[in-house]
Amino acid sequence: MELAPKVPIPEQAPVIEKVPEVPMTGLETLWLQIGGTLCNLACTHCFISCHPKNDTIPFMTLEQTRWRLEESKRLNVKDYYITGGEVFLNPEIFEILEAILEYGPCTILTNGLLLTPKRVERLVEIQNKAAHEMHFRVSLDSLDEKENDAIRGENCFRLALQGMANLSKAGFSTHLTMVRSWDDEEDAIWEKKALAFMKEHHVPEPQVKFLPGFLMGELARTERGYHENERVTEKCFENYPITNLQCSSSRMATSQGVYVCPILVEEPSAKMGDTLEETMRPFPLGHPACYTCRISGMTCKS
Ligand code: SF4
Ligand code: SF4
Prior knowledge:
By secondary structure, the protein is an alpha/beta fold. It has a single domain, classed as Aldolase class I (TIM Barrel, Alpha-Beta Barrel). It contains eight helices and eleven strands. The strands form two sheets. It has a nine-stranded mixed β-sheet with strand order 7-6-5-4-3-2-8-9-10, covered by helices on one side. Strands 1-11 form a two-stranded antiparallel ribbon. α3 links the parallel β4 and β5. The protein is globular, with a radius of gyration of 21 Å. The protein starts with 20 loop residues before the first strand and ends in a 6-residue tail after the last helix. The model is unreliable at about 1-5 (pLDDT under 50). The structure holds iron/sulfur cluster (2 copies). One iron/sulfur cluster binds next to loops. One iron/sulfur cluster binds near residues 39, 41, 42, 46 and 50.
C-alpha cells in the first residue's frame, strides 16, 4: 500500500495570539439606549448605522427603563448616560428622564435638532423638581457649516446651534462632541477652536469632547473597515492598564438586552445577557473596535 505523502511540518507553528479579557471591576455607569437605532439623521460616519428607518433596536420604554434602574440601584451604579439613535424621538423621553433623575445624574447625548424652546421648557421643569442633575452633549462634526452638513445633512448645523442656544438660554451648559477628523496631536488646537466657537455662541461653561471614528456601520461603508492586523493582543496592555477601558466599569442596556458597551450594540457577540447581574463578568476584546479604544484611550463618558 502506498503511503500518503507527508504534509510538511512548518518549522515554527503559527502563533495564535490570546484575546485579552477586560475584567468587570464594578458597575459605575449605566448606558441606556433610549433612542434605539432610530435617528432623525443619517450621518455618513454613524458607527451604529442609525437612520430614520432603522428600528432594528426599538426605543426603550418607560417600564423597561424603570426595571433597569431598580436593577442598577442594587449594583450601586453612580451615573447614567442616555443615547440612541436620537433620544428625543422617544415618545416617553420626559417621563424616562424624570425616572432616571430619581436614581442619579444623567448625561443626555443628542444631535440637538429637536431641542425646541417647548421641549427645553419641559426639561427645565423636570430639572427643577429633580434630585440629580442632567447634562447635555450635542454633536457636530465640524465648526464649519458646509463641512458639518456634508456629513450630517442639510441644515443640521443651524438647527443644532439653535438647540444649543435654547439650552443656554435655559441655563444648561453643553458639551460639544465631535468625531476627530484630524491627527490626535492636533487635539489642543481643536479644543481651543471649539471652546472659542461655543463662547461665541454664548454657551455657559462650555466643554468639548473628541471621539475617534470607529470603522464600523456607515463609516465602514463610506471610508474603510478594519484591517486584519487591527486587533488588540495581550501585548497592547503591557504598559496600559486594561481597566482604563470603559467596559471595565460600565454596560449598555437596550430594549433587547444588555451589551458590553455603547459601541458594540449591533454585534450579537457583544450581548452579555438579559439582566445586568449576568453581565458582571469579564469580556473578551476580540472586536476590532477594541483596537480603536486602546489606541485612542477612548471613553464614551464625559
Ligand atoms: S451619528 Fe448620531 S446623529 Fe448621526 S445618525 Fe448616528 S446616532 Fe444619529
Ligand atoms: S469596543 Fe471599546 S468599550 Fe467596547 S468592548 Fe471593546 S474596548 Fe471595550
